Amino acid sequence: WKAVCRSGVPRWIRRHSHKNRYLTIIKNDDAINLFLHLPQFLFYEMKLLAYMIFKEPFLFGAWTDVIRLLPEALGKRRAIMATRKISPKEMRGLIG
């Protein structure tokens, strides 16, 4: 297995990955879990924002993709939450 540096990954894949990170959080995370991890989440987001400004500003375009896809993601979220099998507390226990 050989590690690939980010510059070797096409920009469209990096943008797609960035967009999917947010859509995954929107679709799957519970508000209580997000709130409980808010300090870590915000710290990571601030580092990511600085990185984007100085290294990969094209990633800001992923935010427009997220906004465009938000209604669909929220619909998927409703379906996921309606059929979930464990509580947010149980999920925290699994993730640690």
Stretches where pLDDT is under 50 for at least 5 consecutive residues are: none
Helical amount: over 70%
Number of beta-strand segments = 0
Beta-strand portion reads under 5%
Protein architecture, described:
The chain has helices spanning 11-28, 31-36, 38-54, 61-83, 88-95. By secondary structure, it is an all-alpha fold. Helix 1 (11-28) packs parallel to helix 4 (61-83). The model has no long low-confidence stretch (mean pLDDT 91).
In summary, what is this structure?
With 96 residues, the protein is mostly helical. It has helices spanning 11-28, 31-36, 38-54, 61-83, 88-95.
Strand and helix map with partners:
Blueprint: H1 11-28, H2 31-36, H3 38-54, H4 61-83, H5 88-95
Helix pairs in contact: 1-4
Keyphrases for this structure?
mainly alpha, globular, 96 residues
